[in-house]
Amino acid sequence: MINHSLKELSQMLAKKEVSSVEMAQTFLERIQKYNPQINAYITVDADKTLTQARAADAVIAAGNASALTGVPIAQKDIFCASGWKTTCGSKMLENFIAPYDAHVIAQFDAAGAVNLGKTNMDEFAMGSSNETSYFGGVKNPWDLERVPGGSSGGSAAAVAARLCPAATGTDTGGSIRQPASLCGFTGLKPTYGLVSRYGMIAFASSLDQAGPMAKSAEDCAMMMNVMAGFDERDSTSLNHPKQDYTSELNKPLAGLKVGLPKEYFAEGLDADVAKVVDAAIAEYKKLGAEFVDISLPNASLSIPVYYVLAPAEASSNLSRYDGVRYGHRTAEYDDLMDMYMKTRAEGFGAEVKRRILIGTYVLSAGYYDAYYLKAQQIRHLIADDFKAAFKQCDIIMGPTVPSTAFKTGEKSGNPVEMYLQDIYTIATNLAGLPGMSIPAGFSHGLPVGLQIIGNYFDEARMLNVGHAYQQATDWHTQMPEGIE
Amino acid sequence: MALNIPDIKRIAHLARIEIDDAEAAQTLDKLSGILSLIEEMQAVDTAGITPMSHSQDVVQRLRDDVVTKDNQRDVFQQNAPAVDSGLYLVPKVIE
């Protein structure tokens, strides 16, 4: 059961070969067995999960099931889920019980999916290794000495180790795609504004976007059918017509024009990762895709621009954690200012503090034009690069990450080196474009992802491009050794 | 721009984060690295370029100014560190 697709699990439930309760129990048992080692989940609540599963079984018995009814899904601990502890990987929210549901959670509930638990993540989604989590790092199931990537590292390890059939993630600079690449599965960051941010704890609001993390493009398509849609409670939600993301999965790729940005194959890309990506490109040629060379001349500015915009927005968003209305409050203090200062010094970890400080600095009096405004202007140039590129091609391909999973502790002392993990993924967040990573092979036993970038609202085509490859190859079905 | 320890302490105060001398020194080192990365932006000529905040050409939606939510104070206050009679408690701010 653990290797089945969402579609297969759905069919098993429909045919009554297995009940939703039994399915949830199978995964709960796996979590019990492997989570002490992998640390993919922060909160597991079997009673809550099984209550939802029993309700799903009743819906199935009544003949009212839809595609994901009864299927267990793990939720990144950034989504508020009513009655569930929702920590965002921070001491600040260690005991926070969400009083309402995020839109994404409500959509999965309405679809009858079962919440399997809340997955570990970098604190406030700030990190590329899951090492900044207050609840401890997550192990990469392919090599337990290595990181799973981040910030959606718990969801990533859970999908890779089959501790869930699929999971949700969020992606501000690569937090779905980079762990998908490092853990060898399929992850999609949709067009900015397609999935509501309501109830999703804010990091950098102009970049944050939720998306699916699953074994295959087909699974991601089924999840997108649940997740995408207009929500008036998110002021940046786009009123885009609902569509069926599975409808184009089986279209032939003949004539597909794929652009290869020369900047994504330049210095800094690991030679073995490049080989895997080249082999994937060769496979796509066999499938009928045509390739053109393109250029994204401002791509190298993505990281500097991101490390102005994201910390600036974070410093504003995280000002709400003041020890007054919810979250951690320091035990002893002299006055209100002292309470704020100590509460925030204790409640936030080092990386979160760094980003708040960077953001505070770039927004402070006299620096706004030189930093925030300048970054927003270059952001426009980066988006224009993609606009020009999509006149020459339908899809852009390249590596997701310059290298494979690194060892725990290897980069945690050097923030700038850590930030370079997202060098190929950040530009799409800045442009608001959808990006996906699919497993394309291995380098020294570690997974390598292929990044697929589409034009705005072109998720169905991207999923088609991913699915066609997954029909011709079996990288996405491979499972880490040592995990049964 | 190169930062120094007093800068770090001033920024930390603006951000309402207590920071001791040892931590300020460590932070200075890390922040300087990040800021030199950010400085790469300054080489780009952005004269006349419109700043971008949303990828789509959208405007902020407005709605009628009517009550849309029920009062959920009691539920929300369950997460509060200190409350009394429906009020959030903070240290005395007026003598």
Write a short abstract of this structure.
Chain A has 484 residues and is of the alpha/beta class.
Helical residues, percent of chain B: 25-40%
Structural class, from secondary structure content of chain A? alpha/beta
Strand order of the largest sheet of chain B: 1-2
Note the main sheet of chain B.
2 strands, antiparallel
- Please provide the count of β strands of chain A: 11
Number of helices of chain B: 3
Which CATH first-tier class of one domain in chain A would you pick?
Answer: Alpha Beta
Number of strands of chain B: 2
Biggest protein-protein contact in the assembly: A-B, 73 and 50 residues
Overall average residue pLDDT of chain B? 92
Write down the overall mean pLDDT of chain A: 97
Describe the structure.
The complex is a heterodimer of chains A (484) and B (95). Chain A is α/β, with parallel strands linked by helices. Chain A is 38% helix and 13% strand. In chain A, helix 9 (302-317) packs across helix 11 (350-363) and helix 9 crosses helix 12 (369-389). With 95 residues, chain B is mostly helical. Chain B has a domain at 18-42. In chain B, strand 1 (83-84) and strand 2 form a beta hairpin. Chain B is flat and about 55 Å long.
What's the SSE blueprint?
The complex is a heterodimer of chains A (484) and B (95).
Chain A: H1 6-14, H2 20-38, E1 41-43, H3 46-61, E2 72-76, H4 103-110, E3 114-119, H5 153-160, E4 166-171, H6 177-183, E5 186-189, E6 209-214, H7 217-227, E7 257-261, H8 271-286, E8 290-294, H9 302-317, H10 336-347, H11 350-363, H12 369-389, E9 395-399, H13 415-419, H14 426-431, E10 435-443, E11 446-454, H15 459-472
Helix pairs in contact in A: 2-3, 7-15, 9-11, 9-12
Chain B: H1 5-14, H2 21-38, H3 73-77, E1 83-84, E2 87-88
Antiparallel strand pairs in B: 1-2
